[in-house]
Design goal:
- It is a single chain.
- This protein is mainly α.
- A two-stranded antiparallel sheet has the order 1-2.
- The N and C termini lie far apart (86 Å).
C-alpha cells in the first residue's frame, strides 16, 4: 500500500507535464501570394498537375523530350536529392519510434548433471541424473513523453522531410528548365546563324553588282562603300553566333553529364522548335 501511495504523486506530476510541451507550436511560414488571378484564364490553358510535370512536351519536339529524359535519368544532383529524401524519412522513423514501447526478450538454457555422491538429486530428479533448465524473460518499457521533447523531435523530423522533398522537386524543375532553355537557345542560334550566312551570300552579290555599276559609271563610290560595309557587318555576326551555338551545346552536355562536345553531332541538323 505504501508503494502505491508513493507512486501516485509521480503519476500525477507526469500527467500534468503532458500538457506542458517543450517549446512553442510550429507555425509554417506565411506564403505571400495573390488571393486570385487578376484575370480569368483563357480557354485552352490548363493548370493540371499532369501537364505541369511534363510541360516541355508541349513543344512537340522528340529531341527535346529525349534530352530531358536522359538528363532526369543521369543527373547526379537528382540522385543526391533523392538520397537526402530517403535519409530524412529514415530519421523521421527513428524519431517517431521513441513514442512507441520498447520490447526486450531474452532466453537461456542450462544443462547440468547432479553428482552421485550427493544425497539429493537435481530438481525433481535423483542423484546422478541430468536435468535441463530453461529461463525466459520478456520486458516492455514505455518512456512517457512528459514534456513533449519526443513529439517536438518528430515535428522537426517532419519539417526536415518536407524540406528534403521540396528540395528534390526544385532540383528536378531547375534541371528540366535549364535543359529546355539551352535547347531553345541552341535552336535559336542555329536559325540566326543560317540567316546570317544566307545574308552574307546575298550581300556579296549586291556588292558585286554595285562594283559593276561603278565600273560602268552608273554608281558612285558611296554605293559601293555602303554595300561593302553592310557585308562586313553581317560577316562579323557569324563568329558571335557560332560561339553562342557551341556554348549552348556544351551546356547541354554538362546538364546531361556527358563529355563536352558529345551532343554537337546530334544537334547539327537544324529544325524549328
Amino acid at each position: 500500500m505504501r508503494e502505491v501511495l508513493v507512486a501516485a504523486p509521480a503519476l500525477v506530476i507526469a500527467s500534468l507535464g503532458v500538457s506542458c510541451t517543450v517549446g512553442p507550436d510550429y507555425q509554417p511560414p506565411v506564403t505571400l501570394a495573390a488571393p486570385a488571378w487578376p484575370e480569368p484564364m483563357e480557354g485552352g490553358l490548363s493548370s493540371s498537375e499532369v501537364d505541369l510535370r511534363t510541360w516541355w512536351r508541349a513543344f512537340n519536339d522528340p529531341q527535346l523530350d529525349s534530352l530531358v529524359d536522359r538528363a532526369l535519368s543521369g543527373s547526379l544532383d537528382l540522385r543526391e536529392a533523392a538520397a537526402r529524401v530517403r535519409e530524412a524519412r529514415s530519421l523521421r522513423g527513428v524519431a517517431s519510434a521513441d513514442l512507441l514501447p520498447s520490447v526486450d526478450a531474452r532466453a537461456s538454457a542450462e544443462y547440468e548433471r547432479s553428482s552421485k555422491n550427493t544425497e539429493f538429486g537435481g530438481p525433481g530428479g535423483s542423484p546422478g541424473e541430468t536435468s535441463e533448465l530453461y529461463q525466459a524473460g520478456f520486458d516492455a518499457s514505455w518512456e512517457i513523453d512528459a514534456f513533449g521533447g519526443i513529439r517536438r523531435a518528430v515535428e522537426a523530423a517532419d519539417a526536415d522531410l518536407e524540406s528534403a522533398v521540396e528540395s528534390a522537386r526544385n532540383a528536378r524543375v531547375t534541371l528540366v528548365s535549364e535543359v529546355a532553355r539551352n535547347y531553345v537557345e541552341h535552336r535559336s542560334f542555329q536559325a540566326r546563324l543560317a540567316i546570317a550566312e544566307q545574308n552574307v551570300g546575298l550581300q556579296q552579290e549586291t556588292l558585286a553588282v554595285s562594283e559593276s555599276r561603278l565600273t560602268a559609271g552608273f554608281a558612285g563610290e558611296l554605293e559601293v562603300a555602303q554595300a561593302r560595309s553592310l557585308l562586313e557587318s553581317t560577316r562579323s555576326q557569324i563568329p558571335v553566333l557560332t560561339t553562342g551555338l557551341r556554348q549552348a551545346a556544351f551546356r547541354l552536355d554538362v546538364l546531361l553529364g556527358l563529355p563536352v562536345g558529345t551532343l554537337t553531332p546530334e544537334l547539327a541538323s537544324a529544325h524549328p522548335v
